[in-house]
Amino acid sequence: MIDPKIRERRIAVTRERGRHRLRIAVTGLCVPAMVVGAFFVLHTGLFSARHVTVSGARHTPLSAVVRTAGLAGHPPLLDVDPGRASARLAKLPWVRSAVVERRWPDSVIVKVTERVAVAAITRRSGAVAILDSSGRVLADGRDAPAGVVPVVLSVDPGPPGSVLGPSASSALAVICYLPPSLRSQVRSVTEGSGGEMILDLGGGLRADLGSATQLRVKFEALESVLAGANLSGPEVVDLTVPEEPTVSQGVSNGTGVVSTGPA
Predict the structure, then answer these.
(1) Percent of the chain, pLDDT > 90?
(2) 168 closest CA partner among 181, 180, 182, 151
(3) What's domain 48-114's superfamily in CATH?
(4) CA distance 219 to 210
(5) Angle at 241 between CA 187 and CA 216, to 5 degrees
(6) CATH 3.40.50.10960 for the 117-262 domain, yes or no
(7) Phi and psi at residue 25, in whole multiples of 5°?
(8) Hey, what long-range contacts does 181-185 have (CB within 8 A, 24 or more apart)?
(9) pTM over 0.85
């Protein structure tokens, strides 16, 4: 015979174990159901990229930014990968970098930093390719925009988004070092057959920089010569040795300047 109290205690324990197993089973079914339910809710229109804000895109069309970032058609915010979207945007010609941020429940913020046009080179077709300081082709146009220095090189640029090779590095370095006082006066930068860099300053006045070295010193010397001498006509300022600049009469040979004697 079992003591009634002991038997009642065993029955209570057995019932409690059964209720515990039931709770575990119900929890095991509810958690996956809640996860699946949340997944479907997050993929509804309530949590889609319905509001896209783009800033910093002056030359890049808004439609291109939205399409390239994968935001066309208001995708679920859960499916928007900010890192991949930023990497895709950086491949657009004008875009230097981009930051994509998700803002729950239904917004995406896109911050674009664009490249700066500094040079222009005429294609063999006659179109003008616009370049940044790294040699990246930003766009094609009919003329060089204001503030952009034309470059004369023996290369034909690729399509927008491509990058010129090392052959353009010297000319681009010259443009990047140009002080504001000279930038507005320079008509073009030409690389001669021997690699010498030549500035067309307009009115038949040219500056021979020699190689693209000591550019800061050479431009300081050029500014001093222009400020201290009344130069006019076909004249050449030789800055090959920046510590000893000279001025000579000269004529153009199409790619550079040939000196004919001291001025």
Answers:
(1) 59
(2) 151
(3) membrane protein fhac (3.10.20.310)
(4) 12
(5) 55
(6) yes
(7) -65, -45
(8) 181/223, 182/219, 182/222, 182/223, 183/147, 183/149
(9) no
For residue 111, give the nearest of 91, 92, 86 by alpha carbon. Answer: 86
Give me the DSSP letters along the chain. Answer: ---HHHHHHHHHHHHHHHHHHHHHHHHHHHHHHHHHHHHHHHTSGGGB--EEEEES-SSS-HHHHHHHTT-TT--BGGG--HHHHHHHHTTSTTEEEEEEEEETTTEEEEEEEE--EEEEEE-TTS-EEEEETT-BEEEEESSPPTTPEEEE-S----STT-B--GGGHHHHHHHHH--HHHHTT--EEEE-TTS-EEEE-STTEEEEEESS-SHHHHHHHHHHHHHHS---SSEEEE-SSTTS-EEEEEEE-SSSEEEEEE-
- Tokens standing for residue 36: 């699946």
Non-local (6+) Cβ contacts of 148 within 8 A are 117, 118, 119, 120, 130
Q: How does pLDDT run across 64-103, given as a tens digit for each residue? A: 999 999 999 889 998 999 999 999 999 999 999 999 999 9
**Per-residue b/e over 106-133, b at no fewer than 16 CB within 10 Å?**
bebebbbebbebbbbbbeeeeebbbbbe
